[in-house]
Write a structure and sequence with these properties.
The protein is an alpha+beta fold. The protein folds into 3 domains: about 10-175, no CATH class; about 200-335; about 340-410, no CATH class. The protein has helices at about 10-15, 45-50, 100-105, 130, 175-195, 200-225, 230-270, 285-375, 380, 385-410, and strands spanning about 25-35, 55, 60-65, 70-75, 80-85, 110-120, 140-145, 150-160, 165-170. The longest helix has about 90 residues, at about 285-375. This is DUF3422 domain-containing protein. InterPro entries: DUF3422. It comes from Brucella intermedia.
Length: about 425
């Protein structure tokens, strides 16, 4: 029997984990996204009561209402709700947000990060500018998408419902392509706003880095002027490094998420296959001209905090090297001083040794003379007393010298 990889089914089902809602124009799409971070979340009770049909991974599902379909979806850091209902096409009868939708939105966890309303109309039948409520052409971004099979219009401003309104004019899209185009638009806005969460953090990081760099410059300037304050400078550098590390840890994950979300935004924009509509700026141009600099600013903030950490590390290494060199010089001076003391001690020892030989020889000669005097009655010695006395002196001195030298060698060995 073939042994399957344990996660084979899960890996295959990933292709079907986020199904789109397919529909024809005219229709209205409401979409809300809620930032939840790393908190665990689950489908709202109201949605479960509607008979939510989940995918195999439990991260998305679709429920049917009397007016349309609601899609619930869990992303890495946010949860989204999308409601698609059909519309008669009458300008005066564009559906308002239903009570069931308002209740669902109120049950959602986290904080709302995005709110979108897409009015899907038919080209040649509906006036996009009228549905959009734009005052001048300068306020509008327009693109022909999907090989000119549809047009997308938006001012990217909040309407009276505190939502961003888009108008999608369908030229030649079927239900499947309409659903996918709407999905891409929703993802562009969700990922764009999730990416921009880091912008205030990046601004704060830049301000803090300026302070860090000023403090570092002060420490570096003091390195050559305050050699006696090296211990204090090391403590200041350690404190500065700790603060920079704290900022790096607290911002690193957010800046990495921004980079990932921005790549998704640019990928979804490319999937729209935009073309220019005379008299208007393209949707992608409008977004990129404002979005890309913000992303670059976040990337620069991340790089700047890394550079600050690197500079502090180099300054710490330089100061430690300076301290090490100074310690080595002090050790060398100490060794030289010890060597001089040893030399002095050796000379003193040699001098003392000389005095010792004289003293011992003096007492030995005295004992020798006493011995000769006590043996004076011996005839053989009495006749040679003077000779023995004179001959014994150098022998005694040499013997004492030899014995002292030998004793010193044995002690040093």
């Amino acid at each position: 029997m073939t042994n399957d990889y344990p996660w084979r089914g899960v890996l295959n089902d990933e292709l079907h984990s986020r199904p789109s809602i397919y529909f024809d124009a005219p229709a209205v799409v409401w979409h809300e996204a809620f930032f939840v971070g790393n908190e665990a979340t689950h489908a709202p009770d109201t949605l479960l009561k509607l008979g939510l049909t989940n995918t195999s991974d439990g991260k998305s599902g679709i429920a049917q209402t009397t007016s349309g379909r609601i899609k619930w979806e869990i992303h890495a850091e946010f949860v989204s709700l999308t409601y698609v209902i059909q519309w008669s096409g009458d300008y005066n009868a564009i559906p308002l947000r239903e009570e069931i939708w308002i209740k669902l939105v109120n049950e959602m966890p986290g904080q709302r990060i995005n709110s979108i309303e897409i009015v899907v109309g038919l080209a040649g039948t509906h006036d996009a500018k009228l549905m959009l409520g734009a005052e001048t052409d300068m306020d509008v971004a327009v693109s022909a998408i999907g090989n000119c099979d549809a047009e997308i219009w938006s001012t990217f401003r909040f309407n009276e419902a505190n939502a961003t309104r888009f108008v999608l004019l369908n030229h030649n899209l079927n239900a499947f392509r309409t659903g996918r185009m709407v999905r891409r638009l929703l993802e562009i806005e969700d990922y764009r706003l999730m990416a921009l969460i880091s912008l205030p953090l990046a601004q704060d990081t830049f301000s803090r880095c300026s302070v860090f760099e000023t403090r570092l410059q002060t420490i570096v300037d003091a390195l050559g002027k305050e050699a006696h304050q090296q211990e204090r400078l090391l403590k200041d550098l350690a404190q500065l490094a700790s603060e920079i590390l704290d900022v790096s840890v607290n911002t690193g994950e957010r800046f990495s998420a921004t980079a990932a979300y921005s790549e998704l935004v640019f990928a979804r924009l490319a999937e729209l296959r935009e073309q220019h509509v005379d008299g208007y700026q393209r949707l992608g141009v409008f977004i990129e001209r404002r979005f890309r600099p913000a992303i670059r600013f976040c990337a620069q903030a991340s790089k700047r905090i890394e550079n600050s950490a690197t500079r502090v590390s180099r300054a710490s290494d330089l100061l430690r090297t300076s301290v090490q060199v100074e310690l080595e010089q002090q050790n060398l001076q100490l060794l030289e001083s010890m060597e001089k003391r040893v030399q002095v001690q050796t000379k003193l020892q040699e001098a003392v040794e000389g005095f010792s030989i004289v003293a011992i020889s003096y007492y030995a000669i005295g004992l020798y003379k006493t011995l000769l005097e006590s043996l004076g009655h011996v005839e053989a010695i009495s006749g040679m007393k003077t000779f023995l006395t004179l001959a014994g002196f150098p022998v005694i001195i040499l013997a004492v010298w030899y014995l002292v030298r030998r004793a010193r060698k044995l002690v040093h060995f």
